[in-house]
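Long-time lurker, first post. I've been practising inverse folding by hand and with some scripts of my own, and I keep getting stuck on stretches where the structure tokens seem ambiguous. Below is the full token string for one chain I'm working on. Before anyone asks, I'm not after the true native sequence, just a reasonable design that respects the backbone. If someone could post their per-position residues I'd love to compare against what I wrote down in my notebook.
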């Protein structure tokens, strides 16, 4: 199982709305994530907008490709893009760059 961690930055003026959106993620989006291999997926948000994402998957590239093939992901990413800083024209899911794991206590 591959553990993946990534960072993004949520705009300070959109933090409350970002939290609200994630308190009510569309059931169709949740089903798509599970079906495409996203397991133990968590998002952690700091008050300054730093977002830490963590998930476990058999194959991160395949999990991303699986979501890319779904209509619900395209709709979700379009709605979520305005919440983020520094995407440089990318969608949030395209801007996720996994961090290098340097330690894991099994």
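-- Answer (accepted) --
I ran through it position by position. Result:
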């Amino acid at each position: 199982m591959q553990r993946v961690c990534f960072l993004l930055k949520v705009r300070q003026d959109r933090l409350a709305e970002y939290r609200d959106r994630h308190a009510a993620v569309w059931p169709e989006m949740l089903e798509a994530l599970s079906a495409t291999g996203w397991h133990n997926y968590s998002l952690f948000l700091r008050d300054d907008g730093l977002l830490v994402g963590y998930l476990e998957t058999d194959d991160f590239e395949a999990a991303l490709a699986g979501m890319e093939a779904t209509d619900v992901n395209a709709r979700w990413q379009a709605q979520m893009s305005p919440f983020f800083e520094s995407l440089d024209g990318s969608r949030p899911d395209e801007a996720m760059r996994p961090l290098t794991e340097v330690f894991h206590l099994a």
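A couple of notes from the structure itself: The mean pLDDT is 95. Helices lie at 15-23, 27-35, 60-68, 71-80, 92-95. Happy to go over any region you disagree with.
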